From TrEMBL, chains A, B:
EC number: 3.6.1.13, 3.6.1.22
Pfam family, one: Nudix_hydro
GO molecular function annotations of the record: ADP-ribose diphosphatase activity; metal ion binding; NAD binding; NADH pyrophosphatase activity
Boundaries of every Nudix hydrolase domain copy: 101-235
Protein name in the entry: Nudix hydrolase
Length: 289, 289
């Protein structure tokens, strides 16, 4: 066995569920303390047949980044309060899971009883100065569901309270952000107005204007007619406003096999059936629609 | 005007599209060279009313991380070859766009003409050792479409060549990865076998076994019956195998308003209509299904 591994204390570590190792450093440490411990640990982990090594460095431990990279670690991802590095020790095919790769947005289609659609004009972004009236849009937050993000964005931008109804469609747009490496998926969601919130109170910093617009006028805007993707989406909204046959995906609230909060979005007829045939405990949850 | 800003050279920078600044450092720089330039640049950017400052540090520039953080920068995200820091200079509401927050996976439902479904047993992961036969699953790569990722995963895991047909449903699973902060969305996709590839050639390092299994036997596995989310999804597959009414989302290939590759996934009847009524140039593209 390696002499260094026997004599030098190791970094504190835990096994992960995939034959790997997790190290979570939060306390200040000098490079002189860190490097021999890391090297001895790597010898030990190799001896144990460990595969992927996760090294999480909290804010303030920037001095350990270059030494870790010198020992073969690479960046995996970062959040505002930590940096995650990773090293693959095994000769086998690298199975380190991918970093988050997508951003999820929503566009909200809300129709009132006069067949008017809720539209906004945005400050900043690609629509600024175009005069185009567009559906309220926004980005889903970490840990937030598509249905919840759609309800939140509509209320934040316009003050209108709604209930999620269906995902009507979604679009994938590649090379969209983060140095043009990541993909943006936008769910076109239909929402129902809650009673008594007809009056618009627009958000001030991101929205120039918000109003109810006759659906045909919205659809026929030159922008929506000239840009194929927008025309397709506008026509789906128009179809819905005419009560023509178009079935989207609704949500069924459930849990994963390990008990985490989870939602299944499926064909609305099927979702209604699933929700209707479940026990009262399930169907009475506020998010089971 | 600040004396330092007049006398010290600035960092090289470009404006972004949202009133911010992009700095992309790739060449080695000493801390002594970097800090005064960064400070002078920050003074200048504030004077110009710039809001968000993006600082991209390539591999090898780890020495600049701590000094940048000392001037108010925070991590935004990292990829294997760079680290992105960001600082918000403005008093206005911080509109720095979110980091990627989701990982997108697929589960592939492939049925042969004997009403048998393509299933696998995985090495590693939560199913290891359970004996459960499951649909081939995988993670969508950066820049890859849902339809393309589904086709790729099936072929990688089983050797079976397929063509994407529909998204049947999708599930959201919160607090799923990256320190339990991020959300996993998994699209349940139906794919059609291409002629002449009936024979399975399983992948060696991640798959114990792969086979064709009668659909009822697949659905009736205790795991699928006991776990609600799996039961819901298995029943959608069963419904499709019985040629019962269940309409999902198909793809229509298009571009965004700025010309980037883009796909709209919408109700299959509607997608078929859109694809059928477009010109030959559109309908002949291999990915217009």
């Amino acid at each position: 066995m390696d002499v260094e591994a026997q004599e030098t204390p190791l970094l504190q570590w835990k096994p992960d569920d995939y034959g790997g190792v997790k190290v979570n450093l939060t306390e200040p440490m000098t490079t002189e303390d860190f490097v021999p411990k890391l090297r001895a640990s790597l010898v030990e982990w190799r001896n144990q047949g460990k595969k992927g090594i996760w090294l999480k460095l909290a804010d303030g431990l920037e001095n350990l980044i270059a030494p870790a990279k010198a020992e073969g670690f690479k960046y995996h991802h970062a959040e505002s309060d930590y940096l995650m590095l990773v090293s693959w020790l095994s000769d086998l095919h690298n199975t380190i899971p991918a970093n988050a790769s997508h951003r999820i947005g929503i566009a909200a289609f809300v129709l009132n009883s006069n067949r008017e659609v809720l539209v906004v004009q945005e400050i900043g972004g690609p629509f600024d100065g175009t005069g185009v009236w567009k559906l309220p849009t926004g980005v889903i937050k970490e840990g937030e569901g598509v249905w919840a993000g759609a309800e939140r964005e509509v209320e934040e931008e316009t003050g209108i309270k709604t209930t999620f109804k269906e995902v009507l469609a979604f679009r994938e747009s590649h090379k969209s952000f983060s140095e043009k490496r990541k993909t943006d998926i936008m769910f076109l969601c239909e929402l129902n107005m809650k009673p008594g919130t007809f009056e618009i109170k627009k958000e001030k910093t991101e929205i120039y204007a918000a109003k109810w617009m006759p659906i045909e006028e919205y659809v026929n805007q030159p922008w929506n007619q000239e840009k194929e993707l927008f025309r397709f989406m506008a026509n789906i909204c128009l179809k819905r406003s005419q009560e023509m046959e178009y079935v989207g995906f609704s949500t069924v609230r459930t849990t994963t096999s390990t008990g985490r909060e989870s939602y299944l979005y499926c064909n609305t007829d099927h979702a209604n059936l699933l929700n209707a045939t479940r026990g009262p405990a399930s169907t009475s949850t506020p998010t089971s629609r």
